[in-house]
Model the fold of this input.
Amino acid sequence: EAQVTQNPRYLITVTGKKLTVTCSQNMNHEYMSWYRQDPGLGLRQIYYSMNVEVTDKGDVPEGYKVSRKEKRNFPLILESPSPNQTSLYFCASSLFAGEAAKNIQYFGAGTRLSVL
Amino acid sequence: DAKTTQPPSMDCAEGRAANLPCNHSTISGNEYVYWYRQIHSQGPQYIIHGLKNNETNEMASLIITEDRKSSTLILPHATLRDTAVYYCIVRISSGSARQLTFGSGTQLTVLP
Done:
């Protein structure tokens, strides 16, 4: 089944303790992206990657790192989490080509992170 | 990407058609209309997209007006599981790595 898989689904941590949220897709998609969703603010892009070893900042990259060493994986790293990073996080992927149908983004189920 | 306007909420009786409108009066010629939905706190789910012709798939139909300034998503036989926030997004299809701008969407509640 084609899917985007995020882990963990729920995470409670403390300020300053490094964590990684994994994201994997099995659709051979070139484009992957991380969003965070907060009440009243909608979905905001953190980082995106157009292909292996190619990453770029979205609208809210501060406090986050990403890497794209393999096409299928795009982990989100919080080196020193802070309470303002408490949020619902989504990973997404798409083929990202010139045709509208290939620009459709597929989302993971989400990771709810609480930083105490 | 063109700005979209959707009603904040709508109700629909189970088994009836749900018609969700979207205004996108500033849409340009190379911009597509995409619809996604998000069931409470789950990942957004793609529904359908179109450029100027009406489109239908197994989930829904998309009706785009001739001037392309508005569109309607139709769920032909709404079920309780269709209760979700529905987002209308207008964007070009190619060359952009920009994020999807979801806006506020329409909260559709399907009533038993």
User: Anything to note?
Assistant: Chain A touches chain B through 31 residues (CB under 8 Å).
